[in-house]
Amino acid sequence: MALRKRVWRIIKENKGRYIGIVILILLGSFYFIAATGVANNLEKLVVGFAKEYRQEDLTFSTDKPIEDIAALEGESGALIEAYRQYDVKLPNGELRLLNPSSKINIPAVLSGRVLENPGDILLDPYFCQTQGLNIGGQIELLH
Predict the structure, then answer these.
(1) CA-angle at 61, arms to 55 and 63, nearest 5°
(2) What is the pLDDT along the chain (143 residues), one digit of tens a residue?
(3) In terms of residue numbers, what domain contains 32?
(4) What phi, psi does 97 have (nearest 5°)?
(5) Contacts of 139 (CB under 8 A, 6+ apart)
(6) pTM (predicted TM-score)
(7) What residues form the membrane-spanning segments (predicted)?
(8) Number of domains comprising the chain
(9) Is residue 46 in a domain?
């Protein structure tokens, strides 16, 4: 009986300390649950983007064209898409142009529209920001 009274007396004398401990435990639990939820959502976002836009796992180049891509895809169980790239100079940098892809690395258009006309290009938002370009604007490519 006396022991029980002593415990409550200690808690009453140090209630600020114990309230602080309970608050820290609650805050820690809240942050852990929030971080777990954010991590799960980020994982779903990254994996979902990679699946929806078929992000490549491997890139390789050849010095000769591949004769029968369909047969090679059937043998390997992989998606293979031939594309060309061309590096062009800009007044203040370089830009790598790739032909449009339809099977692998499908472009995600965040604003503007998809490629419709000859001469249309899709650009990375960060590139547009650093180069001072706007949607629908023009860019001069140097040879």
Answers:
(1) 160
(2) 566 778 888 888 888 999 999 999 999 999 999 999 999 999 988 888 888 888 888 888 888 888 898 998 999 888 888 888 888 887 777 888 888 888 888 888 888 888 888 878 888 888 888 888 888 888 777 66
(3) 2-52
(4) -95, 135
(5) 90, 95, 121, 131, 133
(6) 0.55
(7) 21-39
(8) 1
(9) yes
